[in-house]
Design a protein that fits this description.
The protein is α+β, with helices and mostly antiparallel strands and about 120 residues long. About 35% of the residues lie in helices and about 35% in strands. The strands form two sheets. A four-stranded antiparallel sheet has the order 2-3-1-6, with helices on one face. It has a two-stranded antiparallel sheet with strand order 4-5. Helix 2 packs antiparallel against helix 3.
Length: about 120
C-alpha cells in the first residue's frame, strides 16, 4: 500500500502579503481546502501558504494537483494582488487566460506504507 503526499507553496508569499491586504491568502487557502475535500485528501499540516496533504491513491493526488491549478485560474483575484511580479494575469491568443494569480509550487512524494 502507498500513500501520496502533496506539498504546496505560494511563491513569494511574504512579498505578496506586503502589497495586498485584501484577503487573497484566504482565497488561496479556500481553493486548496475545497479541492482537498473534493478529492478525499487529508490536510496533514498547514502554515499560511504552505500545505501538506496526503492521499490514499496516486491518481487522487494527481487529479487534485491539476484541479487546483485549474481552479486558481478562475479565482477573481483583487487587482492589488495581480499587479506585481509574483501574481499576475497572463493572456494568450484570443485573450484566453493561461495564468491567473499567484505562482504555486506543487510537489508529490509517494511512499510505501508498511503494515
Amino acid at each position: 500500500q502507498n500513500v501520496t503526499f502533496v506539498f504546496l507553496r505560494m511563491h513569494e508569499a511574504d512579498s505578496l502579503e506586503k502589497v495586498d491586504k485584501t484577503g487573497s491568502m484566504a482565497l488561496y487557502q479556500d481553493v486548496i481546502r475545497q479541492e482537498v475535500a473534493a478529492f478525499r485528501g487529508f490536510e496533514v499540516g498547514n502554515e499560511r501558504d504552505r500545505f501538506l496533504i496526503s492521499f490514499g491513491r496516486i491518481s487522487q493526488a494527481l487529479k487534485f494537483c491539476m484541479k487546483v491549478q485549474e481552479t486558481l485560474l478562475t479565482v477573481d483575484w483583487p487587482r492589488a494582488f495581480t499587479k506585481n511580479n509574483y501574481a499576475s494575469v497572463v493572456k494568450w491568443g484570443n485573450n484566453d487566460v493561461i495564468f491567473n494569480g499567484p505562482r504555486v509550487q506543487i510537489g508529490l512524494h509517494v511512499a510505501k506504507v508498511d503494515t
